Amino acid sequence: xxxxxxDAAARRAIAPVICYPNDTVPAPDLNMxxxxxxxxxxxxxxxxxxxxARCFEVPAGQFFRITSVEGPQVGDLNLWxxxxxxxxFYSGKTRALHGTHLTSGERMWSSFPALRPMATIxxxxxxxxxxxxxxxxxxxxxxxxxxxxxxxxxxxSQYHHCCHSNLTRSLADHLSIPLEEAEPFVHDVLxxxxxxxxxxxxxxxxxxxxxVRPGDYLEFFAEIDLLGSLSACPGGDCSSEHSSDVAACHPxxxxxxAPPSGALxxxxxxxxxxxxxxxxx
Length: 281
Known about the structure:
- Helix content is 17%, strand content 28%.
- The protein has one domain.
- The radius of gyration is 20 Å and the shape is globular.
- By secondary structure, the protein is an alpha+beta fold.
- A hairpin with a 6-residue loop joins strand 9 and strand 10.
């Protein structure tokens, strides 16, 4: 290591500055959304098998719920604009606006150039967990998704039921397109129910046993017409490994709910971002 300068301690002591103060981020009307949700009727459901993924669709103005139904299980969630798959969930910008883990009142934001809310979290039954002594918290936007390429890089494996492959198969099946056409649309995820953080000494991404139990759920409001895909991670509750044929794995349930006409009075689906896209040219 290089020799620390004489003012090293002073440099380390400089207070941090939040990059994106979120007090001006447009906030959802949670009271209105929760009133509408109480009036909503179930319109459909999708059961995601263990170590696999399934697609589902949610019209703008409706709700969807992801529930742990048999045992502790984490899920990797992708979202797209149903009419334009190039507009997809942007985990990095969501992280910049809300932090490393999401909960009620926070949103999943879409990619450039749209950059608008795709889904708003209305209810999180794990919001009690907060941040633990290791720095762990639930529902992260820091992990990418388990994938076969990293597995091959690190161990030479050919594992096909990791979340990236699951999401690729589910999208290809849902749209009836080839795998190679579907794969480029698969993107970084919201790790639903996953408990993660960064080690304090080395800054490494870690996972630990999820606190989720059957009956826990994360519920969203669809701000635009959505196509979603959810993978029931082959790591189960991710207490030991995240790509495995031996970890205990369980299904996840996705349910869709439609509120009655008039329940969302005053709400409008958000337009795409207002930047003029001239880029100074």
